[in-house]
Amino acid sequence: MRLYLQTNPTSAEAPRYVQIVLEQDLLGGWTLYRESGAQGGRATLKREQFLEREQAIAAFEKARDTQLKRGYRVMFAQGQEGPHGH
Length: 86
Prior knowledge:
Layout: E1 2-6, E2 16-24, E3 30-38, E4 43-50, H1 53-69, E5 73-78
Antiparallel strand pairs: 1-2, 1-5, 2-3, 3-4
């Protein structure tokens, strides 16, 4: 699953973005990547490991909801399925 969120651009500064990616690793665990920064600037990348899919999805949704509350808007979504998807 992948989400790309962005703030509304202002004339003074480039929009900020957050990209949240959830991937299953080869051993059956899950990795949540959170990349954030200013468009065209330096970015920071955080990585979290999860053993259970449910924990990983909960963390993904929490990260998404946090950014939505901060005023970010979803610009791109890939593989978004419901919490009980297959």
